[in-house]
Amino acid sequence: MHGVADLSAALSAPVREVAGGPLLEVRDLTVEFLTRRGIVTAVEKVNLTLAKGETLGIVGESGSGKSVTSYTVMRILDRAGRIAEGSITFSGLDVAHAPESAMRDLRGREMSMIFQNPRAALNPIRKVGHQIADVLLQHVQADRSNVKAKVIEILEQVRIARPQERYHAYPFELSGGMCQRIVIALALACRPQLMIADEPTTGLDVTTQKAVMDLVTELTRARGMSTILITHDLGLAAAYCDTVMVMEKGKVVETAPAERIFRDPQHPYTKKLMRATPRPGITLKDLLPEDEPGSAAAPLPAPSAEPLTPSPSPARGAGSAPSAAAAVTEPLLKVENLLKEYPRQGAPSGLIARLKGKAVPEEDAIFRAVDGISFEIRRGESVGLVGESGCGKSTTSSMVMRLLDPTAGKITFAGEDISAIPARDFAGHPMRRRIQMVFQDPTESLNPRYTAARAIADPLIRMGKVGGGAKLREEVEQLARMAGLPLNLLDRFPHQLSGGQKARIGIARAIALRPDLVILDEPTAALDVSVQAVVLNLLDELKHTLGMSYLFVSHDLHVVGLLCDRVIVMRQGRIVEEGGAQEILESPKAAYTRELISAIPHPPV
Amino acid sequence: MLKLIASRLATAVPSLIGVVIVTFMLTRVLPGDAAAYFAGPAATPQAIAEIRAKLGLDQPLPVQFADYVTALAKGDLGTSLSTGQPVAQEIASRLPASAELTLCGLILALAIAVPFGIMAAVRQGSWVDHACRLITTAGVSLPVFFTGLLLVYVFYFKLGWAPAPLGRLDVFFSAPPTITGFYLIDSLLTGEFETFRAALAQLAVPSITLAIFALAPIARMTRASMLAVLSSEFVRTARAAGLTDYTVILTYAFRNAMLPVITTLGMVFSFLLGANVLVEKVFAWPGIGSYAVEALITSDYAPVQGFVLAMAVLYVALNLIIDITYGIIDPRARSEA
What we know:
The complex is a heterodimer.
Chain A: H1 7-12, E1 24-35, E2 38-50, E3 55-59, H2 66-74, E4 81-90, E5 93-94, H3 100-106, E6 111-114, H4 128-138, H5 147-157, H6 163-166, H7 176-188, E7 194-198, H8 206-222, E8 226-231, H9 234-240, E9 243-248, E10 251-257, H10 258-263, H11 268-276, H12 322-327, E11 331-343, H13 350-356, E12 366-378, E13 382-386, H14 393-400, E14 408-413, E15 416-417, H15 423-426, E16 435-438, H16 452-463, H17 469-482, H18 499-511, E17 517-521, H19 529-546, E18 549-554, H20 557-563, E19 566-571, E20 574-580, H21 581-586, H22 591-599
Parallel strand pairs in A: 3-8, 3-9, 6-7, 7-8, 13-18, 13-19, 16-17, 17-18
Antiparallel strand pairs in A: 1-2, 1-4, 4-5, 9-10, 11-12, 11-14, 14-15, 19-20
Chain B: H1 2-29, H2 34-39, H3 45-55, H4 61-73, H5 87-122, H6 127-141, H7 144-158, H8 183-189, H9 193-230, H10 233-240, H11 245-275, H12 277-282, H13 288-297, H14 301-329, H15 331-336
């Protein structure tokens, strides 16, 4: 797989080539950060070796030190961080002690980086062409007279359509995938020997992810470049890396060839990560570590406890065959010919801007975000709404939640037509109690000035009959127990809690009023896989205990398949395919569904 | 861009109408009877009533308002009772004096505060940062009349570097012919370099006084907004691409950091324009602020109305300029318009 070494890159490289030696060698690297609470060790005694043309994956969850390691290699740590110990050797150069000017020459020309969140990684007020030109001019790869031609050539290499035009585009005019191509162009402009990709596809759709990763692989292989891929996604690492290094809490726990690490993981943490990764042919319980089977939540209060009994829903078995039980009952939610249109021009909505990036005909004055869809959710049933960004899944859930008014169509909930109630009045409507929502970002969806207890109590105070004081506190504590949130955390503020704990608050808040339907809008997208595994299991348990129905909005078919009975696949505002979760995952009928499934990378097991 | 200017101007019209109504009402409800003031302390009630009728103050408010608006439409801002001069003419001669002083102060403040703020942000925690904090705190803590008097004491009385703080020009010079009303510009345009030097000498100390005051918000805003931008992801990308500090700080960070600074600048300018009354008093500057205060004390309606209206128009113009500047710097603002 070592590509043909690029002659021009090799000739222009000022760094000594060490015959036969690795391109990058990190020995006993320890990185410390100076914080208010003293010195924090972010990375401890990390060793890694990267040969020329090799692709190394660094896998770990947030806080594992994988990003810090790579920033240290490029010496772009912020001022609080410093190398406490160890050495970094890049092509024979001692990175830890090299002068800043030498490092600056190295960055961009010999080693470069692509980042998570491509839109934020680009200067918002500078034309993308100029941003690439800046790099070329900096490293004397072009002069003023030919820089534009060179930039356009690079844009063509990263498969940007109409590069002449895009040269003059600003980042906000491009879609996320397109911005990532620009960032890649920026990183590859000077043909470096090493590219570090820091979660390059997090936040992108699976099909875009595949396109971007394939492009990176193709370009780096053609140039014989070495790559470090930093990711939390084991599947991605497996699909694109030669060697995988697993990190946990600043330490390397395991390094092995990609195939071996997945077939035969040695370290318990690697095994735990492997288990937590959603993949075909498993159940929710399989996601949890072997040694703690069963309950994801703290022990639930006895189902016989008075306030726990779900009032409107029928009693059901412990949920091994929910579809069978649900089939006999009438639909809880019925959506008929739902339509949402937006004017194309001059609409100040951020949603439009997001949707506009997609391939929809530009000439229409009206843009249909949701184009006449119909579906049903029965009592106790979980329905997954899957699709890529801009497919209209969030618009649909917002309309069901009655946050948005539909242009046309009917939403019937528990026999009542709720689409007739204007969105603005629905907040005070008695039906509002029965539909609740769990939001995508556990941090952003909590009021930073409310304690956990206050956040959970919010719906009770606004819509519940609970008086106050001790009674309210008791109710909140019970909800926290159900959501698996330790009671001693109830008086903390969101910034003092972890992502998983905040997700539990969001869930406790959503179930506070014992709703019939909970809309889950990508509730685990911002969480680490091991936390996601726990939260998914919690949601499943709560559903069975409380007899709720879920509308699970997600871009991840595997996650949806684990939690849902039925799946609806959406594309460009329309339903492409609908059916049982297993059936869709195993034998998808629509070509688009097949494309979605095949785009998901998974570990070779 | 033209569309943006037109739409911004259109939104300014209602606020101008509002200003006209409010200033009219405000001057009518303020305590003090203009007629009584002008009749003098020994006047008989009959004499006061006569003056009141002459001024039209005996008319019902709507009629007074209609008269005021009609006159306004003809460009007539009324006549000052205390000086007997038409208000429009007084404002036309005094506004450039205030504007020249304010602009000089602001440019001086910008020239010091922006590089200072950038340095403080780039070398966060260094001596520059501490000096920045100290100077900005001192700048806002000291009232302008105090710094003004202090500077006069040091530079005029003790050192003798500055000329006497008596207006825009030394008595031995005559004002340059009025082209823009700004002495510095007019004297340069007509080639009277001696007058230019004299005007500049007069302007220096009051400008510094204002600049010290205006320094603080600009420097702090520059520092804060630079810090935010410097820790942003695109600056990290630029660094990872090996761009020099110079390019990263000026082309990437500063242009983005400028947006909030410009907003602050607009506020500081309009604030200074009204608030430099004290500086004008200390330096006997024939500006619009001192004119308005004197008129207010004597319940002289017309100049107060004229002053507020002039300020409002200026403020609208200023905001328009800021919006356009925003549009030039930030392509996103352009597309939203």
